[in-house]
Amino acid sequence: MRARRALSISLVLAFILALGAACQQAEGPGQAGPSPTPAAPAFQPPQDEIGVVEIKPGEPIVLAGALVIAGPDAALGTDSMRGIEIAIDDLGGELLGHKIELIKEDTGCNPEGGQAAATKLAANPKLVAIVGTSCSSEARVMAPVINDAGMVMVSPSNTAPDLTDPTKHVEAYLRTAHNDKVQGKVAAEFAFNFLKVKKAATIHDGSLYAEQLANVFAEEFKKLGGEVVAQEAVGPDDTDMRPVLTRIATQQPEIIYYPIFTKAGGFVTRQSKEIRGLENVKLMGADGLFSPDFVEAAGDAAVGMYLSSPDVTAFGSGYQDFVAKYEKKYGEKPISIFHAHAYDATMMIAEAIEKVAVEGPDGTLYIPRKALRQALYETANFQGLTGNLTCDENGDCADPKIAVYEIVSADTSGWPDQVVKKVYP
Amino acid sequence: MASAARRLAVLTGGRRIDLTMVIAWTIGALVLVLVLVGSYQTLVAGRYTAGQWFDFIVFGLAQGGIYALIALGYTMVYGVLRMINFAHGEVFMSGAFSAFFLADALARRGFLESRPIISLLALLAFAALVSMTIAVILERIAYRPLRGAPRLVPLITAVGASFFLQYTFRGLFGSGVRVYPTVPLLEGTILGIQIKLIVVFLGALATLGILWAFLTFTRTGLAIRAVAEDMEAAALMGVDVNRAISSTFAVGGAMAGVAGVLYALVFAQVQFFMGFLPGIKAFTSAVLGGIGNLPGAALGGLVLGLVESVGPSLFLDGLGIPAAHQLKDAIAFTILVLILIFRPTGILGERLGSRV
Amino acid sequence: MRRALVFGLIGGFAAWHLSLVGLIEAFAGRRLIGQGVTFSYVLLLALMLTVGYLVGRRISNWTGLLGAALAGLLVGLALWVLALLVATVDLRTVFVAASPALPDILTFNRGTGAVGLAVLLLVGAAVGFLGGGLTWLPATGRRAVLTALAIAVLVGLLRDVLSPIFPAPVMGFLFTPTGGLSLPGTATVLALALAVPIARQVLANRASSHRGSLSVRALQRRRVAARVIGVVFLASFPLWAGLFLSNVSDFVGLYILMGLGLNLVLGFAGLLDLGYVAFFAIGAYSMAVLTSPELGHFTLGFWEALPIAVAMTVVSGILIGLPVLRMRGDYLAITTLGFGEIVRLLVLSDWLKPHLGGAQGVTRIARPELGPFVIDRPQEYYYLILIGCGLAWFLSVRLRDSRIGRAWMAIREDEDVAQAMGINRVTAKLLAFATGAAMGGLSGALFASLVNSVIPQSFSLLVSINVVALLVLGGIGSLPGVVVGALALVGLPELLREFQEYRLLVYGVVLVAMMIFRPAGLWPEETRVRELEEAAEEGKTRAPAEVAAVTQDGA
């Protein structure tokens, strides 16, 4: 009995071994071995101090989107991820004759999520570049890990100033989102010089982005000689903003600046009209609210409101096409704000890869990593959806031209031309 | 020392005082003093007019009305099964979200303007139906097989079901915000109070009344109460326990659906994550009022809404704390702890069984 | 046959659900096996197989097989109807996932015409039939086949995780360059997955025939050997597992620490704490405030700050424990939940921003130094966390078997009786809160140093819920259960990151399913098992009453 069992096991084992051997043989000749092909001795693959990605014929070029695509902040990252996907579609799904494979990693909008995603991506030697992260808190953790792995990342939506601060900036990190410092300053100048208001109030939602922007605005506004009469905060999931608006009303501000996101922004805008003492107050938001979604969420209350945003006169027709593709592909309008930035980041990376990649005689593509970084830093006058992108030595690539728009209609079918009107500068 | 203890015993109506009580009461007293000092200083500073205080109260009651409506469903389930139905917030969300599509269709065809009452009733009915169905299915799949299990187990399935529902809705309808059309009938104000807010408040009261009548006068209501009192005894007396529990979920779900539509009318936005926070708040309300107690849940909801609206300005302004509104939930939970310290079974106390 | 219809309809509904939430389309490009078998198809086929199996299990004769085929066929039909609907009507204003690409995927690229219908019906019926046929296999064989299939799918899914472990030639053999398992790779994995359990069965049989002659010492030796292997495995893990797996195991370790801490409070003393994240946050923020140069209060080193951070959480544990001493059950649950939220709101607030960093959080938190060596990579933190878990485990075991441990269990079973028996519940409860808090605080302090920054968003209610869930899933009160629970609820989701936006959907389903099929948990404590069995007995005795109820109601 036992003998028979032993026999059957050894038979199974033998079968597996034979199978394995057969497959090895079958695969053997088709695949290029690890040693360089002898047919082209003249060709020297490029050398690079932090590594070269080798892509054999038939293998894809691997890019990653490290964005928040699950949990309460999912809309922010999902929107950017779609921007990447549309960019890949526009490239025809391939680059230099290789398919583009997109790895999607969730970063959770917190440092531990950023760390998990970063370590996973860093362990993938085939990965060329990353579009990400969504939240600045993730980038602070992710950038050093990615830097050590020799890769490069371009963030579509980090706006915190410290990420590109010369003392803290990491080489692997670039971004197409603009620095909060720029936007907060323009908003304050607009309010003080153009609207000629002297008393302002700010609201943030406890997110890194909004808190930073509200503070920059308040500082700049004070510097110009204005008075900040109230600095309040709400929760991102709060719905009833009437009490906090009533509190603000007691200080009689002339403008309320709330650089928050669609959901809470819609509530604040709508409910501000219901508060005694705020009937004539001017409202102003930032690019977090620059979307048809917000205008819909706020309804008629949004008319007359000001929004700061990258100067989209440069967005032009390319952006219209983009939105059309977005709606066709995903069945809804853009759900957040950094889709175009993600699109540009992807295109920038693609262009840089095209610039530095070298094809060997056997069709193998070599992408030197350091050269890729340099090519990205050398990006200049790149015609993107979000404007003319030029990267500086600290990784800031966004077009720094910020404009202020006024919402002139609540009917979003004519977005953006019939809905927002540029008023400044 | 002994006489002091005796005096304390008189104070507490003859109950024995142990160390835990003394400690808890000391902490409670400290918090209370802080609250009073803050309120006094705020009132002395005179930053707010009487009209503004009135507004705070109205806003608080409106928000509280919605909490109350969701809390009623919470407390019913608790009264019958002694379980925290963590997924109740998602039942609320599903009603509001599904009814959006009906509301949108009605608005497009102009019905919302031409026949507002019928449209509104249709919306309420539809949301109630969806929420009811989901609540009943939820009970059948996730809770019924676990009726004999330790109490923590259904809590975890409830959490699981909550995630499932959230992300199902996200997958089906997208993660963006959907905006309810405005109902012209509900715009405008009466006596300086917005009509929507009045409707929400009255809606909460009416629902409470209907629920009370249902539990008191119908056979199903009787069965539910019997099961809440003692499941086994009720079964022995010929009550179909499974049916009674299903009806509990059905009624609780329907109320969540109604709450969802009222919420959407006031706040105009629906999104897949909208149920989570109100769910937690409703749970808090139910406990605040005395979990398992229907009027208690309603009262708890109103108190919570009031505290959130009035609290930051009243308690914290005087203490000189910036951006006080940010701490409204912290205040709400502090008040909860305070109330539970002095009344460990909530404001109205537990009245399981007799009133569910 | 009615059963077949019912299951077929449920299966069809599930197929609609999978398709309309976007899962099917999202994974249509994810090749698992060869070029053709994508993860979407695996999902749909698994659905048909399950439906067929369920029908076959209920009816164990030839009609059962027919029924299984019918149920599978119904699933196929449902898919075709959906494909047709999506192709002809624009559902996207309501269902965002009903994209134009969906019908092609659902019909295996055969179109929504008669051909597509025929293919779907055929596939459905065949797979359903197979599923029904599974019930005809003997139990061990069936289990082996199903496990092997599941393992093959899992290996296909885990390619990215496996690639740093195995040398490139092995990976090249197992996988095709575009993602999925290669055909020979599939065969190998299947064969191994089948061979291992069979070999183990054989060995076990042989051992059992020898059992009589196996001496006590030999058994002991075997146990020692197992322990040595375990220790070597744990100690060498980061050396071969690579950066990503080390990082995942770091987080699993942090959750194990929290789980062990909460286990003292919830598992031993029976106090439902839904705000355990408060201690995690206090530990993390203490570490941040004490070491980060950003705030400028203190600039201690990691090792000086660590004991202070733990002491802070012990104090906070007592402070939170005091007002809730008299509360029970759900009142305790909501109050502690409130405390967790209060802590998060305070660290987020503008009010305390100068001291705690507010919305911007705190960065540049100290790394532990050992002489000239600085611990700053996940692989190195692993050892630190491992030591922390070891300490917490040791403490848990000692506490469980001590006087205080028995006092906790007495309180868990019946608080009033425990007090009547002379147990000082004030001390006992506070001690539970304090020690539990210390472990949470340790976890938090390590966490802050590991990710080098803290931000309020990391300390949401979800962390508390996750810890409670991993305790219950592992088996409440059971120490090995904590480890199993953490591996399942923290480790697995990290490994299966690919599910991305569907991760929480799957997480929800898994929680519900696990609780229904294993209410005692994956590795239950012995007394709990007994209790559950008793409860089940009670349920059985109650059943007749319910039957009576039904009949009366009918009359």
From TrEMBL, chain A:
Signal peptide annotation: 1-26
Identify the Gene3D superfamilies for this entry: 3.40.50.2300
Alphabetical keyword list: Signal
Annotated InterPro entries: BCAA_transport (IPR051010), Leu-bd (IPR028081), Peripla_BP_I (IPR028082)
Q: Which Pfam families match?
A: Peripla_BP_6
Is Lipoprotein given among the entry's keywords? Answer: no
Where do the Leucine-binding protein domain residues begin and end?
69-408
Source organism's superkingdom? Bacteria
Family, per entry: Belongs to the leucine-binding protein family.
Q: What is this protein called?
A: Branched-chain amino acid ABC transporter substrate-binding protein
Originating species: Thermalbibacter longus
From TrEMBL, chain B:
What protein name is recorded for this chain? Branched-chain amino acid ABC transporter permease
Q: Where are the transmembrane segments?
A: 21-44, 56-79, 91-111, 117-138, 150-169, 189-215, 244-266, 272-291, 298-324, 330-349
Q: Which GO terms describe its cellular component?
A: plasma membrane
| Transmembrane found in the keyword field | yes
Pfam families in the record: BPD_transp_2 (PF02653)
Q: What is its main location?
A: membrane
Source organism lineage? Answer: Bacteria, Pseudomonadati, Thermomicrobiota, Thermomicrobia, Thermomicrobiales
Gene Ontology biological-process annotations = D-alanine transmembrane transport; L-alanine transport; L-isoleucine import across plasma membrane
Q: Which family does it belong to?
A: Belongs to the binding-protein-dependent transport system permease family. LivHM subfamily.
An example of a GO molecular function for this protein is: L-valine transmembrane transporter activity
Annotated localization:
Cell membrane
Query: Which terms are listed as keywords in the entry?
Result: Amino-acid transport, Cell inner membrane, Cell membrane, Membrane, Transmembrane, Transmembrane helix, Transport
Record membrane topology: Multi-pass membrane protein
| Source domain of life | Bacteria
